[in-house]
Specification:
The protein is mostly helical. It has 10 helices and 2 strands; from the N terminus they run ααββαααααααα. Helix 2 runs parallel beside helix 6.
Length: about 375
């Protein structure tokens, strides 16, 4: 028997050594063949997939991203969508009943106010989410496909080959967001394993997390807009400006015509700026109300928890950790919105309208219009 255990241990060690060698070879190859930026974009791409899986598990994202004709498209999962809607309705009823029954038993008016506002906020966010999934599902799906199409067009224009999402700034923001999501698991404490308590905890986790995912989706959405604007601005500033600057005066060189490729790239850039702006407006139209409800709920929760902890002198790690978690979510969203707004304003600083191309009126109308 001892020899069998020893043989198993030896085989296990050999397997671990082989896997370690494969891993070292992979990282060695990655270091020599690819840049730090390509590794960063792949990591952010993995984080983005994790966020999508997280939203899908909690029934907020009810579509699937798949390859179709060498491009990514979002496809609706009708059966799964209706399953998530029915499940959310059932759990919302159980959550409202159990939470209200438990809140009545409390003595502290601050706790009663906090949990009441939290319950009402979560139920209101759930109702808005159900409305989005029932009446605006096709618009949401179209919005996702338009995002994917914009990323494809910008990537094709830049000639980029790496697959990923953003760069170092996005990696930092998304890593902090990942820590914020994981922390939620540690805020729940099971006092007993009775079926009703476990059902209450599950309902609270499902409803509150689903309501909070709206803010995470807005974070990813504004971060996507910031990346689109940034990549397009970089291309215009570093490549297109040089292409347009190399064009000669048509009057001085009658036989030299402006580069068709440069003019085509100019048209595509202008169309992309316009399409990104349209997607931005559509995104805000769909998510402004859910995001407003979520922000109000988060700010009220921070205020109520902080007041309770200070007045009752209960300096519990979980309480202040919850406040810090909510504050980080709001700050991350603010940073994403700021990056998107700043990158969209950088269009004017490129000063394409003042760039000399040719004497042709049509070319100046494209750049200055």
């Amino acid at each position: 028997m001892t020899n069998i255990y020893g043989l198993i241990l030896i085989r296990l060690m050999e397997y671990l050594v082989r896997q370690a060698n494969h891993l070292m070879a992979y990282f060695s190859y990655d270091f020599h063949k690819h840049s730090v930026m390509s590794r960063t974009t792949r990591i952010t791409g993995w984080l983005l997939r994790f966020f999508a899986l997280h939203a899908k598990v909690f029934g907020v994202v009810t579509f699937r991203i798949e390859w179709k004709e060498s491009r990514l498209v979002a496809r609706n999962l009708k059966s799964y969508r209706w399953f998530c809607i029915l499940l959310r309705l059932i759990i919302s009823g159980i959550y409202g009943y159990s939470f209200s029954s438990w809140t009545v038993q409390l003595k502290d008016w601050l706790l009663i106010g906090f949990f009441t506002l939290r319950m009402l906020g979560c139920l209101l966010s759930t109702a808005v989410l159900i409305v989005l999934q029932i009446w605006f599902n096709q618009e949401l799906l179209n919005l996702v496909n338009r995002f994917l199409e914009l990323f494809r067009r910008v990537k094709r224009l830049r000639g980029a080959k790496q697959h990923g999402f953003g760069g170092r700034h996005e990696l930092v923001l998304m890593s902090v967001k990942l820590i914020s999501l994981i922390y939620v698991i540690f805020t729940y404490k099971v006092l007993s394993f009775s079926p009703w308590i476990m059902l209450t905890i599950f309902g609270d986790l499902y409803i509150s997390t689903g309501a909070g995912i709206v803010m995470h989706l807005c974070f990813v959405g504004y971060l996507s807009l910031a990346i689109l604007y940034q990549d397009l601005n970089t291309y215009v500033d570093c490549h297109l400006r040089a292409q347009l600057g190399s064009l000669r005066d048509e009057d001085e060189a009658e036989n030299e015509q402006p580069s068709r490729q440069a003019i085509s790239n100019l048209d595509e850039c202008l169309n992309l700026y316009e399409d990104i702006h349209k997607v931005d407006k559509e995104f805000q139209r769909l998510f402004n109300l859910p995001l407003f409800i979520n922000l109000v709920q988060s700010l009220l929760a921070m205020a109520m928890v902080s007041t309770h902890a200070i007045l009752r002198r209960q300096y519990i790690v979980n309480l202040w950790g919850l406040v810090l978690k909510l504050l980080i979510d709001v700050l991350l969203l603010t940073l994403a919105v700021h990056r998107a707004q700043r990158n969209s304003r950088m269009i004017k600083s490129l000063s394409l309208e003042n760039l000399y191309i040719t004497e042709s009126r049509s070319h100046h109308m494209k750049v200055g219009g």
